[in-house]
Write a structure and sequence with these properties.
It is a single chain. The chain has 4 domains: about 90 residues, Uridine Diphospho-n-acetylenolpyruvylglucosamine Reductase, domain 2; about 120 residues, Uridine Diphospho-n-acetylenolpyruvylglucosamine Reductase, domain 3 (2-Layer Sandwich), CATH 3.30.465; about 120 residues, Alpha-Beta Plaits (2-Layer Sandwich); about 80 residues, Alpha-Beta Plaits, CATH 3.30.70. The protein has about 475 residues and is of the alpha+beta class. Helix content is about 35%, strand content about 20%.
């Protein structure tokens, strides 16, 4: 039972407003909404509200304001930092946007799509493809993550190096404000210089300033020529050097450029069915090069072969395989995408989502790896991620045989170890996963002073009662 009583009549009013499909009160039905997929947090809630449209979202928010009920906003619940999980008090109402799952418009002339917050990312990708276009945001959880969630966290993913983060893929928003007003900013305009760009205020705010209910998204010409290579490289500097070679040859063709350590690939081979050693010999460092162009005659395979041949002659690339089909390309991509699951099956791991200037990535990987092994002897660094945009997941796997609970008890020591080096390299402690509940205690040190004060003033102005996703983002 909740620690505080449910506001009088709240559940009855919610039931009358939303109907039997729109309100979950049975503990078994609520349970999946109370924990994150990493099992870092286990919350409690009064109920789960499932409004069917924006008007119902606004009505729920007004009712929450009237009764002083905190709201935890939830999309696909794929947050890596506990941003969509209620606290343990039992006072929160979880507001799920799963039923707002309509694509309202898809215009291949404007190259825009208007999608509701509950549309699954993969569904948006498929809708763009059916329209002869591309919606390029791509990440491991795209079969579960929703449009509202990826915008609220300003998700990055694999194609940031070419297309930018979620923020760069959004032209307009529809938002329910904390007082229950609906702001319709669903503008499809590339140019709209009319005062404050309010839409950017809600991207990355993780539901603390309002609830994104729909968005106008940018689409792009679909690729007509592609090439993909998995390469073993000499070291971290070689990985960055190869990226520079491809970028210098044709910057617009580089869709993704991903780094993987030998240990991370080893875990995938060991634990994930269907993944085999991709090259003849194991390597300590790998990169995945994904090229794409809307021009059918771009000659990307020839370009890739030429760049790789030059890099092999100079010892930058040790071995490589070019995908011969779309099926083989998907198999190679799967090695990268299964890293989180493989680490989970190997044992306990602590995840660090950090970014540094691209030129500093090799130094960051080397320094962090050495410092982490010194901090916890026998631990296994598993760095991987988006070397092309400076975002590396500097993860650490427990030593073999160590009690997982003992290892996880050192989580903040591990994060502090990584963050000290990242800060020295002018980086950020959160690159694409957001702050959520996990990293609020870091905000004062990293963003204190005028920056954090401005954030708090914005929060107080829009949500003076502090009911929108409380306990997230701000310390």
């Amino acid at each position: 039972m909740p620690d505080a009583p449910t506001p009088a009549g709240l559940l009855d009013r919610l039931h009358a407003l939303l109907g039997p499909r729109g309100l979950l009160t049975d503990p078994a039905d609520i349970a999946p909404h109370l924990s994150d997929w990493r099992a870092l947090y286990q919350g409690r809630a009064l109920a789960v509200a499932r409004p069917a449209d924006t008007a119902e979202v606004a009505a729920v928010v007004r009712l929450a304001q009237e009764t002083g009920t905190p709201i935890t906003v939830q999309g696909g619940n794929t947050s890596m930092v506990g941003g969509a999980v209620p606290d343990e008090s039992g006072r929160h109402l979880v507001l799920s946007l799963a039923r707002l799952n309509r694509i309202r418009d898809c215009d291949p002339v404007d190259m825009t799509m208007t999608a509701e917050a509950g549309v699954v990312l993969k569904t948006a990708q498929n809708a763009a493809q059916e329209a002869g276009c591309l919606f390029p945001l791509s990440l491991g959880a795209e079969g579960t993550a929703t449009i509202g969630g990826v915008l609220s966290t300003n998700a990055g993913g694999n194609t940031t190096v070419r297309y930018g983060n979620a923020r760069e893929l959004m032209l307009g928003l529809e938002v329910v404000l904390p007082d229950g007003q609906i702001w319709n900013g669903l503008r499809r305009l590339r140019k709209d210089n009319t005062g404050y760009a309010l839409r950017h205020l809600f991207v990355g705010a993780e539901g603390t300033l309002g609830i994104v209910t729909a968005a106008v998204l940018r689409m792009f010409p679909r690729p007509r020529d592609t090439a993909l290579a998995l390469c073993a490289v000499a070291d971290e500097e070689a990985a960055l050097g190869l990226f520079r070679r491809f970028r210098d040859r044709d910057d617009s063709a580089v869709r993704a450029f991903e780094y993987m350590s030998g240990s991370g690939v080893d875990f995938c081979v060991k634990h994930i069915e269907g993944i085999a050693q991709p090259l003849s010999d194991r390597a300590a460092h790998y990169v995945l090069v994904d090229l794409a162009s809307p021009r059918p005659d771009a000659g990307l395979r020839d370009m890739a072969e030429a760049v790789l041949a030059e890099a092999m002659e100079e010892g930058i690339v040790l071995d490589a395989v070019l995908a011969e089909s779309e099926a083989q390309a998907q198999k190679l991509w799967r090695i990268r995408e299964e890293h989180p699951e493989a680490q989970k099956r190997e044992g306990a791991s602590v995840k660090n989502d950090v970014s540094v200037p691209v030129s500093k990535v090799p130094e960051m990987i080397r320094r962090c790896s050495a410092a982490l092994v010194e901090l916890i002897p026998g631990s296994r660094p598993v760095p991987f991620g988006h070397i092309g945009d400076g975002n590396i997941h500097m993860n650490l796997e427990q030593p073999p045989g160590m009690d997982p609970a003992v290892f996880l008890a050192r989580s903040h020591d591990i994060m502090d170890c990584v963050n000290a080096i990242v800060r020295d390299l002018d980086g950020s402690f959160s690159a694409e996963h957001g702050i959520g509940r996990l990293k609020t205690d870091m905000m004062e040190e990293w963003r204190g002073g005028a920056e954090l004060d401005a954030m708090k003033r914005i929060k107080a102005a829009l949500d003076p009662a502090g009911l929108m996703n409380p306990g997230k983002v701000l310390p």
